[in-house]
Design brief:
The complex is a heterodimer of chains A (431) and B (293). Chain A has 431 residues and is of the alpha/beta class. Chain A is 56% helix and 13% strand. In chain A, 40% of the residues are buried. The chains are: A alpha/beta (431), B mainly alpha (293).
Chain lengths: 431, 293
């Protein structure tokens, strides 16, 4: 079995080049069709994300299996790019390395943000697209289905995915969850309608938040965002009254100085002395006066506080890295071992069939010759058994060697030798 | 039934559970939560066996059901342990045991100290005596429950305020919202239980002697405790935040301090206690009786 992978990823290739190499879904479909026409004996899957463009190939046939350069050129030619310009940045892998790489990618160990969950769904989508385009067969089915299982195993057996590392996700999943049991009934106020606020709202929605209010200097922008998140909007003048009425405040304005001062905050708070509030100030410069954190029952978190948590989580993910790599290593070996067993099975079958043909022809020849001697049925039976025993005894040592080396690196070499020595045909020779 | 089970059996289990909870700060033990739950179940099992033996099969002292401080304390400790068990199963990662187990052990310790003391005076006013005794027992349990959650609230609040130092904090505590809801629950339940205790005490006294000695130390302090919890509950109802505030935590802690003072007064004044020789054969007569002097 022959495997190969070529591609460009965030490790070596800058975003400007990756953008030029990227494939849309329609382009992936077209590319796979072209690939099938050009290399009919090969299976292929094309993975294109914002961080990587990778083409995975598999084939039983060595002779018709494309070389790395051919594969790279296929990708660059599709976009009308100069191969020479991109050659040095390409990653080219064969055999075990390409399987290992696919498992590593699917488990999100090769991602720009290690442990991010999106890559697995992208790998699955690439595989499904290839299935629709009928550019995959048994081998690609097996390897991509296994890749999904490997990713699942890494997710279950390590904590690499558990720690969030972006400021909005940490703000919600690690900070807000220390305060609240559930978010459905909490009144949440978003100040500012910027990108950070939008992302935080997405996470809050994922956690079940429903009572969301938005305040922004530009009411139009607030209303546009409110429509997206089914939120209410309030004019800027209601800022303090809304803060006081909320359980949680997320602030993300682009103001150059604090929009909420400690004096005004305390003044507004005097009307609600027992109400505790969580404030996530994600703005830089800060929207809330730092002294507000000293006010009783007011929990103020700034970007610095959250980034500290993010950094700790990055370190925690790194600590899980060896465990995850070990799983990928194990699974790669297991996959290859299973593949070689499958390849071994067909070789043994061919060998036995060949031996059977030879035995039968020799036995028939002998029986014809001895026909004039009037052999009785018992003698004929004896001869047949003797031939069977001869064949079995001849085949026993090589079969035993194969069995004994089933899980070693020698297994593939032995199978190869067996095919060559007995001339079992090129079409199913394992790698 | 398993007559060899003694107080030390379950006290030992609870001590081990507490040590395991405390060790969260220093050690990462694989399978800690499973081990902790197993030890807790073992302790609770022994505690239950002991209670059944003491309440239903002991005839050593002719003391009836829940008729002395020892039985009363061990039952209260058992109920708190059940509450702790529910919390552990709900979220084994939280270190609630560090706050609840000392209270459980303190109740058992108090009972052991009072063991063999004068039992409560048995009377013949069955129903009111049962309601009175059980109400005060429930009220005390909820006050103990509340103080544990009040302390947890204050600690969690302090940790969340100190943000940057959170990385050093290895103890996981429930969310502020959950702690606040437990504080509320304990306040409301305590007030309700004490109200029932007060009313049944009044009925008990009126039925027995036709009057109430409001100035007796036991009654006066219990009324004061009830009035205090009522005020605390009204204050709590006025706060509408999901996260509550430190004030709720201070209120439940103050409840506990108040209860300790009342308990002291009751013990010193021998409220509800009579001569050991005063025994009754009626089953209901043996429930706690504090308001009869």
């Amino acid at each position: 079995m022959h495997w190969a992978m070529v591609g460009w990823s965030h490790h070596e290739t800058p975003v400007e080049l990756r953008e030029r190499l990227a494939f849309s879904n329609d382009q992936v479909f077209d590319a796979l069709q072209q690939f099938k026409q050009r290399f009919p004996d090969s299976e292929s899957v094309l993975l294109s994300t914002c961080n990587r463009v990778e083409l995975y190939c598999a084939s039983q046939e060595k002779k018709s299996f494309p070389q790395h350069e051919e594969l790279c050129r296929f990708l660059t030619d599709f976009h009308g790019l100069q191969f020479a310009e991109l050659q040095s940045k390409a990653t080219t892998l064969s055999g075990e390395e390409s399987i290992h790489h696919l498992f590593t990618v699917a488990a999100s160990l090769d991602s720009m943000i290690i442990g991010e969950a999106q890559i697995l769904s992208q790998v699955k989508a690439a595989y499904e697209l290839a299935c629709r385009g009928e550019s995959v067969a048994t081998n690609m089915h097996r390897v991509f289905q296994r890749a999904a299982l490997v990713a699942k195993r890494v997710a279950n057996e390590t904590e690499i995915h558990k720690k969030r590392i972006s400021v909005p996700s940490v703000a919600v999943s690690e900070i807000a969850t220390e305060f609240f049991e559930r978010f459905e009934d909490k009144k949440i106020l978003l100040i500012g309608a910027g990108e950070m606020g939008t992302e935080t709202l997405k996470y809050l929605k994922d956690f079940g938040a429903t009572k969301i209010s938005i305040i922004n200097r530009s009411l139009e922008r607030a209303k546009a965002l409110a429509t997206e998140f089914e939120a209410e909007t309030y004019p800027w003048e209601k800022l303090y009254s809304q803060i006081m009425a909320s359980d949680m405040v997320v602030s993300t304005t682009g103001a150059n100085e604090p929009i909420v001062t400690v004096e005004e905050f305390q003044k507004a708070r005097s009307a609600h002395p027992a109400r505790a509030v969580l404030i996530l100030d994600l703005a830089v410069p800060r929207d809330f006066d730092a002294e507000i954190s000293d006010v009783s029952d007011t929990y103020l978190y700034t970007v610095d506080d959250l980034q500290e948590v993010c950094q700790r989580n990055v370190e925690a993910r790194k600590a899980e890295w060896p465990k995850a790599k070990k799983i990928v290593q194990e699974e790669t070996k297991r996959f290859l071992s299973e593949s070689s067993h499958r390849g071994g099975g067909s070789t043994i079958r061919l060998l036995r069939e060949q031996a059977e043909v030879i035995k039968k022809s020799e036995l028939d020849r002998l029986l014809n010759k001895l026909d004039s001697k009037d052999l009785d049925e018992a003698t004929k039976k004896e001869l047949q058994v003797a031939f069977d025993r001869l064949v079995n005894k001849l085949l026993h040592p090589p079969m035993q060697s194969l069995r004994e080396n089933a899980d070693t690196h020698q297994h593939a070499s032995l199978l190869d030798a067996l095919r060559r020595l007995f001339q079992l045909g090129e079409s199913e020779r394992p790698k | 039934m398993l007559s060899g089970v003694t107080v030390s059996c379950f006290v030992f289990s609870y001590l081990v559970v507490m040590c395991m909870e405390a060790a969260r700060v220093y050690l990462k033990i694989p399978g800690r939560n499973t081990l902790l739950i197993c030890m807790l179940i073992a302790g609770l099992f022994a505690h239950t066996i002991f209670l059944v033996n003491t309440l239903f099969f002991s005839d050593a002292s002719n003391i009836k059901l829940l008729a002395d401080w020892f039985q009363w304390s061990v039952v209260a400790a058992w109920c708190l342990t059940i509450a702790y068990m529910v919390l552990v199963i709900r979220n084994p990662a939280n270190a609630s045991g560090l706050f609840l187990i000392p209270l459980i052990l303190a109740l058992i310790g108090l009972g052991t100290l009072m063991r063999g003391g004068t039992p409560f005076v048995p009377t013949s006013e069955g129903l009111w005596q049962v309601v009175h005794g059980i109400s005060l027992l429930v009220g005390t349990m909820f006050i103990c429950f509340g103080v544990a959650f009040g302390m947890m609230y204050l600690l969690q609040s302090m940790r969340l305020k100190s943000k940057g130092r959170r990385k050093k904090a290895k103890l996981k505590l429930p969310t502020l919202e959950f702690l606040q809801s437990m504080n509320r629950l304990s306040l409301f339940a305590t007030t309700l239980a004490l109200a029932f205790g007060m009313l049944s005490g009044v009925a008990l006294n009126l039925q027995r002697s036709g009057s109430i000695d409001w100035l007796s130390p036991g009654i006066l302090s219990t009324v004061a405790l009830f009035v205090w919890t009522l005020i605390a509950t009204v204050l709590e109802i006025s706060a509408k935040s999901s996260l509550g505030g430190r004030r709720s935590a201070y209120l439940v802690i103050a409840n506990f301090v108040f209860m300790l003072a009342v308990l002291g007064v009751v013990l010193v004044s021998s409220h509800g206690q009579g001569n050991v020789a005063q025994k009754s054969t009626s089953a209901t007569e043996s429930i706690i009786s504090e308001v009869n002097s």
